[in-house]
Design a protein that fits this description.
The chain has about 200 residues and is mostly helical. The chain folds into 2 domains: about 15-75, Orthogonal Bundle (Arc Repressor Mutant, subunit A); about 85-195, no CATH class. It is about 75% helix and about 0% strand. It has helices at about 15-45, 45-55, 55-65, 65-75, 90-105, 110-120, 120-140, 150-170, 175, 180-195. Helix 2 (about 45-55) packs across helix 3 (about 55-65) and helix 5 (about 90-105) crosses helix 10 (about 180-195).
């Protein structure tokens, strides 16, 4: 007499489903970043993004609900800013620039978002939000007068984004040729002044 196979344990198969779901989300986000960067927000379509990800457009809507929701997810960025309280005060600018160069070298999301932000209002607002929410608290902690923090954070952002634009988007040869160490050496003192120098 053959014994029947045991019933699957509750939840069996869910890890595989979860892995497939994560892979699908990853494929959608990767395709969205490339499409938003190449076409801009207005011209990028759910259908084109789904085609790039090789899935049905209904799957994009299932996971993200709308083009706006997809854009927000594709541009969700954690700058992973270091705890500068552990850095010598005179080294803060250099440490911050070195960190940003490292993040930019490893994460294409920032470059895609910068490309979108240049020509698109939603992209620009998203980039402003990332820097406001993450860089401004750092400026408040280290600058001489916390009331000056928004101005100082804005100047730092201008320096860092200008570097990123010339190096990763416009690809000026001189900017591309610099090593990460050289970028920190050149830009660090300027960012240091913006953050910690007395107000002019």
């Amino acid at each position: 007499m053959n014994e029947s196979a045991p019933d699957p344990a509750p939840g069996a198969g869910r890890p595989a489903v979860s892995r497939r779901s994560d892979a699908t989300r990853g494929a959608i986000l990767s395709a969205a970043r490339e499409r938003f960067a190449a076409d801009g927000y207005e011209k990028a379509t759910i259908r084109a993004i789904a085609g790039d990800a090789r899935i049905d457009p209904s799957m994009v809507m299932r996971y993200y609900g709308s083009k706006e929701g997809l854009f927000a997810a594709a541009c969700a960025i954690d700058l992973r800013l270091p705890d500068l309280t552990a850095v010598a005060r005179e080294d803060i600018g250099r440490a911050l620039v070195a960190h940003f160069v490292g993040v930019w070298e490893q994460d294409e999301v920032l470059t895609a978002m910068l490309r979108v932000g240049i020509t698109n209002t939603a992209g620009a607002e998203r980039m402003r939000g990332v820097f406001r929410d993450q860089l401004l608290p750092v400026a408040r902690r280290v600058c001489p007068d916390p009331a000056d923090a928004p101005r100082r954070a804005g100047l730092c952002a201008a320096q860092i984004l200008g570097m990123a634009l010339t190096r990763y988007v416009l690809r000026f040869p001189a900017a591309v040729a610099l090593s990460g160490e050289e970028m920190a050496d050149w830009l660090g003192p300027t960012v240091q002044r913006y953050l910690t120098a007395d107000r002019p």
